[in-house]
Amino acid sequence: MADEAKAKGNAAFSAGDFSTAVRHFSDAIQLAPTNHVLYSNRSAAYASLHQYSEALVDAQKTVELKPDWPKGYSRLGAAHLGLGEHEAAVSAYKKGLEIDPGNEALKSGLADAQSAASRSRPAPPPNPFGNVFSGPEMWAKLTADPTTRAFLQQPDFLTIMQEIQRNPNSINMYLKDQRVMAALGVLLNLKLHNPTEEEADVPETSSPPAERKRAAEAEPAKEPEPEPEPMEVGEEEKEAKERKLQAQKEKEAGNAAYKKKDFEKAINHYSKALELDDEDISFLTNRAAVYLEMGKYEDCIKDCDKAVERGRELRSDFKMIARALTRKGTAYVKLAKCSKDYDIAIETFQKALTEHRNPDTLKKLNDAEKAKKDLEQQEYFDPKIADEEREKGNECFKQQQYPEAVKHYTESLRRNPKDVKAYSNRAACYTKLGALPEGLKDAEKCIELDPTFVKGYTRKGAIQFFMKEYEKAMETYQEGLKHDPKNQELLDGIRRCVEQVNKASRGDLTPEELKERQAKAMQDPEIQNILTDPVMRQVLIDFQENPKAAQEHTKNPMVMNKIQKLISAGIVQMR
Fold first, then answer.
1. Is 116 within 8 Å of 122 (Cβ atoms)?
2. Is the Cβ–Cβ distance between 495 and 488 less than 8 Å?
3. Are residues 373 and 246 in the same domain?
4. CB of 79 within 8 A of CB of 66?
5. Is 107 exposed, middle or buried (0-12, 13-18, 19+ CB in 10 A)?
6. Inter-CA distances, 210 with 119, 205, 214, 255, Å
7. Which of 505, 528, 560 is the last residue of a domain?
8. Whether 113 and 163 share a structural domain
9. Is the residue at 230 inside a domain?
10. Are residues 51 and 76 in the same domain?
11. 130 lies in a domain?
12. Are residues 177 and 256 in the same domain?
């Protein structure tokens, strides 16, 4: 019964009905309170309802019951993350990865937790040298100084300064480079003295005062050399700055046109921005978005590829590269005509998520995977082959080759998922193999697909009978009789159930049979509800101690129906 409640919970969770899922998982936990999977599933359902405190309690219970199960730590991390306890979430995911280092769910969760933790910490103080390296003014100052002007002819120095300009914090890597120190002195208008090795190794000697006086008299005083006048910012730098400003104006104009759905005009503006400044990949990603809206998917993909390539050259923000890849994946989805076409889209979305884990990209990935699966099913659909496979299964069944028959019926259902006959036949196979829960699912699927298909009721009733759920089997057979009142198989099924129920009523069960039936009944939520109902408890007491009151109870059909269930279960015996 716990498995049945769990299955209902899983189905509700898959359907997005998380409250119902919690209820079913709770029922299952009452029946199997040491099953760690049930607490894990309920934790996930609570988290989906944003009830993170309840999710945390269940996750902690999961880890307590099964400390070597990685998924428990995934649930624990998710609950902590939902409560804003970022460090605790990081710790939980890391513990899970110690058990299963390759677990992708734990890796992804850890990345989210670390990202959230970093966002919650106070921002580091700005680099004090940040403004020193910004803009074309830096190059103008370095060109104006005679010492640093010579360094500008050296390619490695140019590379270092460009790196520092992009990321001022990287200056710490180059402090031992005398050229960088000289450049920093020029930019700060300071004279940073860096002694040469010779000056550092040879100590300065003091001369007697008289000697110093004679030396001063012997040498005429030198006039100070005039400092070189600072060079004006070059025309090239001015032009570059102006082009960048103009490019941003073109981008803003393109954005305005895009919002107005004037796509051709937007493309023209973004293209002009690119001509003016090829170091901002947002012009490419914006143009790609326009192509996507226009249905020009190939052009969109080309722009996205250019943006990724150029972005890596410029070491652009990972979010920008992820945006380009997401847009590219969306274009591939639009171009998909068969299930295999989704492969490249799925791969592209996955690459985007490695650059930056964006919820929108994750949703697009999930949608693409579902669309691929649905399309695969449609492409595989073939009723003719399904009938052939079902017939092969029937032949194997006749020869009592039940495992082989199951394979053929399963293939038949893959080719035609709505064939009630294949479900019915596979249910019969599962019954022969003793796989009663699987057979019950197939029988219930028959009834779900076609409520008038009587064979589904006979299959389900037979399986319930073998599971010794005689009351339920009788209800199934009676439901089937509504569609075919004269069906002999259904009538025989009811007769067999009545015999078993009466056997319990007469007290004809052996002690072993009685004990087994009682143990099974105590796992049934319906029986549990009857026994915990205060009214029914009083009724049972009256049957033992108050014959007059008991006689009144027999006039109540609902009460007698519940008593009959207890009798069938072997809980109550009438003498």
1. no
2. no
3. yes
4. no
5. middle
6. 68, 15, 6, 79
7. 505
8. no
9. no
10. yes
11. no
12. no
461 and 488 belong to one structural domain: yes
Domain identity same for 522 and 404: no
Residues 355, 289: Cα–Cα separation, whole Å: 19
CA pseudo-torsion sign 366, 370, 371, 376? positive
Q: Return the closest-CA partner of residue 573 out of 509, 500, 485, 490.
A: 509
| pLDDT tens sequence across 163-182 | 787 777 777 777 778 888 88
Q: Give pTM, 2 decimals.
A: 0.43
Task: Look up residue 207 and give its amino acid.
Answer: S
Phi, psi of 229 (to 5 degrees): -70, 140
Domain shared by 33 and 80, yes or no = yes
For the record, the structure tokens of 92 come out as 């939980």
pLDDT in tens, 32-91: 889 999 999 999 888 888 888 899 999 999 999 999 999 999 999 999 988 888 899 999
> How many structural domains compose the chain?
5
Kindly state the DSSP code that residue 281 receives in the 8-state scheme.
Answer: T
Q: How far apart are CA 303 and CA 96, in angstroms?
A: 40
Q: How far apart are CA 55 and CA 44, in angstroms?
A: 7
Query: Does residue 221 form part of some domain?
Result: no
Reported as a single tens digit per residue, the pLDDT across 1-32 is: 678 888 888 888 877 788 888 999 998 998 88
Rounded to the nearest angstrom, the gap between the alpha carbon of residue 148 and the centroid of all alpha carbons in its chain is 53
Cα 25 to the center of its chain, rounded Å: 21
- List the domain range (segments joined by +) for residue 299: 242-380
C-alpha of 403 from chain center:
36
Last residue of a domain, one of 334, 352, 380: 380
213 domain-assigned? no
Dist CA 265 CA 248 (whole Å): 16
Q: Same structural domain for residues 270 and 374?
A: yes
Residue type, 121: R
How many CB atoms lie under 10 A from the CB of residue 53? 10
Two structure tokens written together for 189: 């208008």
| DSSP 3-state of 510 | coil
